[in-house]
Specification:
The chain has 305 residues and is an alpha/beta fold. Helices cover 30% and strands 28% of the residues. It has one domain: Rossmann fold (3-Layer(aba) Sandwich), CATH 3.40.50.150. Bound molecules: S-adenosylmethionine (SAM).
């Protein structure tokens, strides 16, 4: 086995051991797509670490990247893509996640991936061709509007952070479709949530902690309605914890996330969290122990089962 393949497989093995890759199909997708082909100019060693790799900055701020492989795995497990599915991705970035999903949908399916920046789109196209994924459609468009030309979709995934569930995404999904997105629940609290439609509302199937760069374009501002939260900044928690316990070894991430969730939600694990998203027009009377968070387009109702 070459050094590149050895590093590639070692990363997949680690993602599996750590529980981020849980199903054989997702494992096979990760094994079949070499991440370094989507990161030209990045060393092989770096391409196969479990790190996000920034690929573009604007005014000193990161605006495009290859997401951290562990969060890519978590979100693909949440998305549960089936063979033959039509999938829309918002945030093409390097094209790596689109290539993984191209493997998962197979010959009968279709992946459409959007990015707002023409140069990012051009690079993603190049990477996908190099990796042999010539069926993926890469389009330059503002994902806030979805992509009606290829709708309806079985799955929609955002790989860029949203503050709300925008109408276009709801309209362009099939009735039994699934939406996975990094959603800012409260200021400083971002979760990747898998939503399924249930009657007139959306219900979460799973949620996990995450941190993504934010959606740009027409809907960038209007999503930031929720500002007066007392939720803690995760980076601030890390600094405070390490001030109290100046350890040589950093605390395990899982422990820190549990602490963070405990402080922000009163629950260490997100396993029992249920989020329902109702359209803003619907009158909703919260039941006991439910928290309602008002967004521009939706009301999020949080409860612990
Ligand atoms: C974290 S990167 C995506 C990573 C990518 N999925 C991968 O596998 O490499 C987020 C991407 O979202 C794009 N983006 C931001 N706002 C967008 C919008 N409104 N519509 C489409 N893409 C957007 C950024 O340009 C950036 O490339």
């Amino acid at each position: 086995m070459s050094d590149v393949s050895a590093r590639h497989y070692a990363l997949v093995d680690r993602l599996k051991q750590q529980g981020f890759i849980r199903t054989p199909r997702i494992e096979a997708a990760f094994r079949s797509v070499p991440r370094h082909l989507f990161l030209p100019g990045v060393s092989i060693e770096t391409a196969y670490t479990d790190e996000a790799i920034i690929t573009k900055y604007l005014n000193g701020k990161p605006i495009s990247s290859a997401s951290q492989p562990s969060i890519v795995a978590i979100m693909l497990e949440q998305l549960s893509v089936q063979e033959g599915d039509r999938v829309l991705e918002i945030g093409a970035g390097t094209g790596y996640n689109a290539a993984l999903m191209d493997y998962l949908v197979g010959d009968r399916g279709q992946v459409v991936t959007l990015d707002i920046d023409p140069d990012v789109v051009e690079n993603a196209c190049q990477h996908l061709l190099t990796a042999g994924c010539d069926r993926v459609q890469v389009i330059c468009a503002d994902g806030g509007f979805g992509y009606p030309a290829a709708a309806p979709y079985d799955r929609i995934i955002l790989t860029v952070g949203a503050g709300d569930i925008l109408p276009a995404w709801q309209q362009q999904l099939k009735p039994n479709g699934r939406l996975v997105l990094p959603l800012t629940i409260l200021k400083n609290v971002e979760l990747t949530v898998a939503f399924d439609r249930v009657n007139s509302y959306w219900e979460s199937d799973s949620a996990a902690n995450c941190g993504f760069m934010k959606l740009r374009g027409a809907f960038a501002e209007s999503q930031e309605k929720e500002t007066n939260s007392k939720a803690l900044d995760f980076k601030e928690v890390l600094i405070q914890v390490n001030n109290i316990y100046p350890l040589l070894e950093p605390l395990p991430l899982n422990l820190l996330l549990s602490l963070y969730n405990l402080i922000n939600f009163g629950h260490a694990s997100l396993k029992d969290l249920k989020i329902k998203a109702y359209s803003q027009e619907i009158e909703y009377m919260p039941k006991a122990k439910e928290t309602v968070i008002d967004k521009n387009w939706t009301k999020l109702v949080l409860s612990w089962q």
